[in-house]
Amino acid sequence: MNVAIVGTGYVGLSTGVCLAEIGHHVTCIDHDEKKIKLLQKGTSPIFEPGLEELLQKHILSKQLHFTSSIQEGMKGSEFIILSVGTPSKKDGRVQLSELEKAAEQVGAHIEKGMIVLIKSTVPVGTCERIKQIIRNHSKNEAEFHIISNPEFLREGSAIQDTFSADRIIIGYENRDAAERVKELYRPFHAPYVLTNIRSAELIKYAANAFLATKISFINMIANLCEQVGADISEVATGVGMDARIGSDFFRAGIGYGGSCFPKDVQALIHTAEDENIDFSLLKETVAINERQQQILLKKAENVLGDLQGKKIALLGLSFKPNTDDLRQAPSIAISRSLQERGAIITAYDPVIKKWDSASNGNVQLKNSVTDALQNADGVFLVTEWDEFRRLPWPALLETMKRPAVFDGRNCFPTEQVEACKKIEYYPIGRKPII
Ligand code: NAD
């Protein structure tokens, strides 16, 4: 089948290489010409495990093409997947201008029988509006179909998630078009949920808002654990083994971040507000998360006193491991707060090699953990990259002014920390080890 994908970012590119892998002919379109040139050479502009291999494989197999021309990309395609960004506006509502612009461009080249899938996360009612925009810009009044097909892949495991999706949501008006979409995705062997378009749009927000709430919930339990002498790892294990609850997204830490949860929770709060529903549960999810992002700072102040002039090393900057995405990463909130308190901030991340100090907090990026930790008064473990677990910690702690480790992701089991002689270890929801 011939597929065009408009918007070659984390979602569009991951989807594109996976659709090529299951045998489709895919053209990825992006208006960022630099990105397209890079991709045409087989270089991925993003860090995503397994992506570059598939990219190069299917450029060679000629099943994957890249262009900045919508007209060229859409030519001969039965499916047009829209996966452009839908970021938050300042007030927390969804910015739909990229999607509307893409719809205008798609409208100019739409042909009879084409099926337009909206993969971007969009508020209820948006697909209907996008359909209207496409129709308004169609020169030949071609009859086309619209499908709401929200995406659930996670950065860091996007390829694996696409090949083993829990479900594929198909929100449709026209049953034949829905059947064609089922055919498109059939080799992924995922269960389908066929719904009306509005339900499909809402499923995505409800899922993300629920997961965010689950994280805020376990973080509150972790804070309680610290007060009552319980251990969050044991509590979360015991609670998560209940099949009705489950252990996924049930780890305490310094809160969620990324390009999806924060904006999607805000968007759902606004959708509810527009319908005169006060979704106070979600407002509290957000408030808890914002407080949780500051928890290492509080612990550091309790232990180290005034942070003015103190050197704090951050390990990990991306919002989670195995991605280079910094959007809404907790590291940004932490850096800004540390800067406000006059701390000197160094940092190391395995893949983040650029940092905007003016807007994200004044951080000196180092090329190694050793450089970041040198003479530090404390280290914050911000992102649980695997390599941090394997570090020669005893030797590294020797290089610090004070071996104070504030572990925002509970990376280390108690026995391992206890075996480390010279350490002051402050995890989340567990007893410190000093
Ligand atoms: P992104 O910012 O990484 O990519 C969007 C791409 O669209 C960019 O490369 C941009 O240049 C391009 N673009 C914008 N307007 C265009 C146009 N008119 N023509 C061609 N290209 C255009 O975004 P993303 O993270 O891939 O997210 C895309 C959508 O998927 C969002 O709605 C997001 O909420 C949703 N989503 C994201 C994830 C995730 O993990 N990133 C997961 C599920 C759903």
Automatic annotation (TrEMBL):
Gene Ontology biological process terms from the UniProt entry: polysaccharide biosynthetic process
Entry annotation: catalytic residues: 260 (nucleophile)
Regions annotated as coiled coil: none
Annotated pathway: Nucleotide-sugar biosynthesis; UDP-alpha-D-glucuronate biosynthesis; UDP-alpha-D-glucuronate from UDP-alpha-D-glucose: step 1/1
Keyword match Amino-acid biosynthesis: no
Chain positions recorded as substrate binding sites: 152-155, 204, 249-253, 257, 320
Domain UDP-glucose/GDP-mannose dehydrogenase C-terminal: start-end pairs: 313-414
Keyword Oxidoreductase among UniProt keywords: yes
Binding, NAD(+): 30, 35, 86, 121, 155, 263, 327
Catalyzed reactions per annotation: UDP-alpha-D-glucose + 2 NAD(+) + H2O = UDP-alpha-D-glucuronate + 2 NADH + 3 H(+)
Keywords: NAD, Oxidoreductase
Pfam families tied to this protein: UDPG_MGDP_dh (PF00984), UDPG_MGDP_dh_C (PF03720), UDPG_MGDP_dh_N (PF03721)
Gene Ontology molecular functions: NAD binding; UDP-glucose 6-dehydrogenase activity
UniProt EC number: 1.1.1.22
InterPro entries with a match to the protein in the record: 6-PGluconate_DH-like_C_sf, NAD(P)-bd_dom_sf, UDP-Glc/GDP-Man, UDP-Glc/GDP-Man_DH_C, UDP-Glc/GDP-Man_DH_C_sf, UDP-Glc/GDP-Man_DH_dimer, UDP-Glc/GDP-Man_DH_N, UDPglc_DH_bac
Entries under NCBIfam families matching the protein: NDP-sugDHase (TIGR03026)
Summary of the function given for this chain in its UniProt record: Catalyzes the conversion of UDP-glucose into UDP-glucuronate, one of the precursors of teichuronic acid.
Family: Belongs to the UDP-glucose/GDP-mannose dehydrogenase family.
Protein's recorded name: UDP-glucose 6-dehydrogenase
Native organism: Fervidibacillus albus
